[in-house]
Each structure stands twice: as C-alpha cells, then as structure tokens.
Amino acid sequence: MTERPKPDRRGTYAYFQLMTTRWMDNDSYRHMNNTTYYTFFDSIVNQYLIENGVLDVENSPTIGLVAETMCRYFRSIGFPS
Known about the structure:
Layout: H1 34-51
C-alpha cells in the first residue's frame, strides 16, 4: 500500500484565491468532479494575471498558459464548500 503524501503547509504557497463551489460541480456521489478542480486552476491563473496587470482580456496580446499541473487530493470537497 502506498503512503499518502502529507499536505504542504499553506505558507508554502504565495497566492490564494477564494473559489465558490456550485451544485453542478458535484457528481452523483456528492463530491466535486475531478475536472472541476482543473477549471478552478484555470480561473485562478487568469485572475492572478489580471490582478497583477499582466493580462488584459480585452486588449492584451499576452495570454496565460498553465504549462504543467499536478493535483494531490487530500480530501474531497463538494457543494456547498
């Protein structure tokens, strides 16, 4: 049996964005669908770029890309969370 990785401490991360879950994010087992986590990542990256003046979605020739992601699930979330 593989040992579960220990969660990183919040202080490890430089940026946080509050995300609100929606009823439609849940699957039939009442937990958030795995693909929804990745839509959150996309939204958070774009929000970060907009807040820091890097991305202007109306006028900027610059776009933001997430080159690599990894998701370690320490516990499930679902609506309302």
